[in-house]
Amino acid sequence: MLMNYRYQEYLNNMNLNELTIKEAADGLKNGKFTSVDLTEACLKRIKERNSELNAFITVCEKTALDEAKKADKIIADGNGKLLTGIPFAVKDAICTADVRSTGAAKILDNYVPSFEATVIKKIRKQGAVLVGKTNCDAFGHGASNENSMYGPVHNPHDLKKVAGGSSGGAAAALADNQCIFSIAEDTGGSIRQPASFCGVVGLRPSYGRNSRYGIMPMASSLDTVGPMAKTVEDVALLMEVMAGQDDLDATTVSDKVDCYLKELEKPINGMIVGVPKEYFEAEGMDKETKEIIEKQIDLLKSRGCKIKEVSLPYTKYAVATYYVLVPSEDSSNLARLDGIRYGVRADAKNLFDVYAKSRAQGFPEEVKRRILIGTYALSAGYYDAYYKKAQQVRTLIKNDFDKVFKQVDVLVVPTSPFPAFDIGSKSKDPMVLYLSDVFLSPAAIAGVPGLSVPAGKTANGLPVGVQIIGPRIGESEIMRIGHNLMK
Q: Is the omega angle on the peptide bond into residue 196 within 30 degrees of 0, that is, cis?
């Protein structure tokens, strides 16, 4: 009865876009509203707010309404699935068939893929409705979403603040109820950090858990694709659809996909939660953020978890390691964008100028910076000193996590050392922005999963996220802890 009243309240106030996936799916199934109603509510919100937030690069208004009408017919015929008729958004660095996919770089301003990323194909096969492609740091290069060639994304909690990067558009659109869920990509924190800054739930899955096919590659050995949603329950639901082995991606693993929704309901009493001291002693840690995270740890203790202090000694080398490995792989992956095969081609008189001008005009400064650094690190005279050494340290970082997960079930740490900062306040010093990844890059380097869930707000009303890190293919455990924290 209470649920019916809530649906009626949403209908009366036209706030259907504020529903979770679970609530929206129940409403559609029970005929409380239609997918067209739901989609129109999201599109209305986009029209009202996107000029301020700049969360979307491309809005698919006509096709979204067409898809919603088809979804309503499927539901009416009794063939609806859990995601049928649910509006969602996709990071613009993920390919969507017949929908412009720019990667937030002008070199792909006119690029319309003829194929679809595997994870998006799985979601659309369920009948979900694509409302648009979200803004991001170009090709995932950044921690603030200020490196998009389509302008920065603004945080819906404070328009003067960044939304986080690189998936800032996906997080901002979701936090502002412009979609019911979003799909993004995480190389070194690109889902978790914006989820923290915008106050939503974001999951970086284990490397190989979800297919990377159709994701514009930045650093192939670290890239992952994952969901962002309003609740951990919704993230679990999405992972059941997205996860699994893919013949088109040789890095996907054959491990069984858990029934994540059922796993959420298992008790956390007796679980051992590790608290790595290095994460709480980091230089630049915001005092208010630290206090909020410590309260979350106390909450877990009160609910029967055993808290154990642990050490990850090689954590302090993670950022340096990450910023050798990622530019190196960037340099290789982005070589394909040359103005010849696809994308925008600059006017030029000879072949060299086609390459030079297309890349000069089509890439933002941060992308150029990383290509140069990566090319240098891979050069014959420096490969052993930089890239090879970084790979060796990467193994040590991974070994740290392997050892710790023999002692504990999960780790609980801050997602970011600070809440969202002012747009423009850090962009002039790339090194300061690189240090934003201090709590995010270790899990990425080790290939283990990390989940950011809202932990509270600062006195100024800015969201703070707590990060739960688990062992390889440990998505069930981290989502169980995250779900419990959000109760």
A: no
**Domain tally, the chain:** 1
What is the arithmetic mean of pLDDT over 134-140?
97
Active site residue 190: yes
Structural domain range at position 143: 2-263
For the stretch 76-114, pLDDT in tens is: 999 999 999 999 999 999 999 999 999 999 999 999 999
Catalytic pick from 32, 35, 91, 230? 91
Check pLDDT > 90 for residue 211.
yes
Look up residue 192 and give its two tokens: 């978790």
- For the entire predicted model, the pTM comes to 0.95
Nearest to 360 by CA among 336, 332, 338, 329: 338
Residue 6 structure tokens? 């809530």
pLDDT at 180 over 50: yes
Tokens 């933002």, residue located: 364
The answer to whether 410 touches 116, Cβ cutoff 8 Å, is no
**Structural domain contains residue 77:** yes
pLDDT at 133: 98
295 as an active site residue: the answer is no
Catalytically annotated residue among 35, 101, 144, 166 = 166
Residue 162: inside a domain: yes
Catalytic residue among 148, 190, 331, 436: 190
| CATH value at residue 9 | 3.90.1300.10
Q: What's the pLDDT at 284?
A: 82
Q: What amino acid occupies position 22?
A: K
Amino acid found at 110: N
Q: Would you list the DSSP string of 374-440?
A: HHHHHSTTTTIIIIIHHHHHHHHHHHHHHHHTTT-SEEEEESSSS---BTTSSTT-HHHHHGGGTTT
Instruction: Answer whether residue 64 is part of any domain.
Output: yes
Tell me whether residue 82 is in a domain. yes
Q: How far apart are the first and last CA of the chain?
A: 21
Element (H, E) at 204: strand 201-204
Per-residue pLDDT of 46-64, as tens digits, reads 999 999 999 999 999 999 9
